[in-house]
Write a structure and sequence with these properties.
Helices cover 32% and strands 18% of the residues. It has helices at residues 3-26, 151-160, 173-176, 201-208, 210-224, 238-247, 268-276, 296-308, 340-347, 386-389, 402-406, 413-421, 425-430, 441-445, 452-473; strands spanning 51-53, 59-63, 73-74, 81-82, 87-90, 99-100, 105-114, 120-128, 187-191, 228-234, 254-259, 291-295, 314-320, 330-335, 353-358, 365-366, 380-385.
């Protein structure tokens, strides 16, 4: 390596250290998790944009896989007339969720249809005919404050209305509240961090539906039996913090906790550590340390489910990107089943677009099929330019340790990358590959542009299959 290049690297390192010190001073006193994390550009271009209602689709493709777990089972037939909010897919397993019609009209097809990944998934196709809602749903704008349902009834309503976590994983919400007799929830933690770059929908829901969110939290407190609820929110959202603080003033069980800006602040284990100081053991769930974690927008849809009998029939989605004109960066309320192509055409696809990401740049997925349609968990659609989408040239590992430093789970990503590449899956298991939360911090921070997370995902998949096969043999 030349002397000039060494000087250049030394200068870059000095700038990084300076930025880190300034960041530490700026956020002095704010809570955060204590291991790893990175600081990608926020790029919250739609932060100040009110949520707009997107036009209804002429046809909705309603996937039966809009949640973690088993696909829902269609309960309608071709030719059936359906109304908005009517059950069209029934949960088909312990970890599964009900699916409801997002538009009214006629069921024209029940088939396997490609989603954003390009893989075919079971779906119900509805041709729109007006916008007629199921009579059981309260469609008024009146805020219903009195909570009339008890714990078991609330959990049943979560399940019936198909409520899932809207922070990314789409885990069926009711399962988190089905506690065993020996389990006790002390903290209900509400994730309003929204640490993923570009995405702004949680911020907008807080600002525009504040009271409904708080009632949703009160409902969740009843369901969980928790003594207190804590809303964790990064301090780059001062307006939302102010509104929430005002809304919970004098509330004996709810408080707001500002957090430092650091990714992945909103991950369950990291959020629990930041707010309570408790560490969730490897392989354990948050309830093992007395916590249940839910996203703030999930609290809003929980309010709608319990107080209005309304299922999830729409997604809150940020459409953004550096190449998109600022006035085109928006937050939408989109009926499920709306074609992604319609959304893209509404804002205009930048000429230099190299990739479209659904769900944020750190943990989202590239849209492989523009004919796919919106699902419950589609929190964003992001345009990346050709330059942004193209990965840098891969070089040898420098042994710099940045991936280790950035890993919020305390893993050695460089090692897991190598073990996965060598197909040494037993060693992957021994070195904790199943504890990876796939946040992408290691790959983001790697100066050699190595595809660390890609290899870890493959290794995690293979290791998981190995563990399941071993467990089956030991039964």
């Amino acid at each position: 390596m030349s002397e000039n290049r060494i000087k250049e690297l030394a200068g870059e390192l000095a700038v990084e250290i300076s930025k880190e010190i300034k960041n530490e001073v700026k956020h002095l006193g704010k809570k955060t998790f204590n291991m790893g994390g990175v600081h990608p550009e926020a790029n919250k271009f739609a932060h100040s944009k009110s949520v707009e209602t997107f036009d209804l689709p002429d046809q909705a493709v309603v996937y039966m896989t809009q949640h973690l777990g088993a696909p829902a089972k269609p309960v309608v037939q071709v030719g059936d007339k359906v109304k908005v909010g009517q059950l069209v897919g029934e949960a088909n397993g312990f970890v599964s969720a009900n699916i409801h019609a997002p538009i009214s009209g006629t069921v024209t097809k029940i088939d396997a249809i490609a989603d954003i990944t390009g893989y075919k998934k079971p779906a119900v196709v509805i041709k729109r005919e007006g916008d007629e809602w199921d009579e059981s749903i309260d469609t008024s704008e009146e805020i219903v404050r009195e909570i009339k349902l008890g714990k078991e009834e609330i959990i049943a309503r979560m399940k019936d209305r198909g409520i899932v976590g809207l922070g990314g994983a789409c885990f069926p919400t009711h399962i988190k509240y089905m506690l065993k007799p020996e389990q006790k929830c002390e903290y209900l933690i509400i994730n309003a961090a929204e640490c993923e770059p570009y995405i702004s929908t949680d911020n907008r829901v807080v600002l525009e539906r504040t009271e409904q969110c708080i009632i949703g939290i009160e409902i969740a407190l009843i369901a969980s039996g928790a003594d207190q609820a804590v809303i964790g929110i990064e301090d780059n959202k001062p307006n939302a913090i102010a509104k929430l603080t005002e809304a919970v003033h004098g509330h004996p069980k709810i408080r707001v906790q500002p957090l430092r800006i650091k990714y992945p602040q909103g991950a369950e284990k990291q959020l629990i550590k930041a707010i309570t100081g408790r560490s969730v053991p490897n392989g354990a769930l948050p309830i093992s340390v007395g916590c249940i974690v839910n996203n703030i927008t999930t609290m809003y849809v929980l309010y709608q489910a319990v107080q209005k009998n309304k299922p999830i029939i729409q997604a809150y989605t940020t459409v953004s990107g550096k190449s998109l004109p600022l006035e085109k960066c928006k937050n939408f309320r989109i009926r499920l089943g709306t074609p992604i192509r319609d959304i893209m055409n509404a804002v205009g696809i930048p000429e230099d677009t190299g990739k479209i990401i659904a769900g944020g740049p750190m943990m989202g997925k590239a849209v492989a099929n523009m004919d796919a349609c919106a699902g419950k968990g589609m929190s964003s659609l992001l345009f990346l330019s050709e330059k942004e989408a193209k990965r840098g040239p891969v070089s040898n590992c420098l042994r710099c340790g940045k991936c280790v430093e950035g890993c919020p789970m305390g893993l050695e990503p460089y090692l897991l990358h190598a073990l996965s590449d060598l197909q040494r899956y037993e060693d992957c298991e021994k070195n904790g590959i199943m504890n990876c939360i796939e946040c992408g911090s290691c790959q983001y921070i790697c100066p050699s542009n190595r595809p660390i997370l890609d290899y870890i995902r493959v290794g995690k998949n293979k290791t998981g299959a190995m563990i399941r096969a071993r467990a089956a043999q030991n039964k």
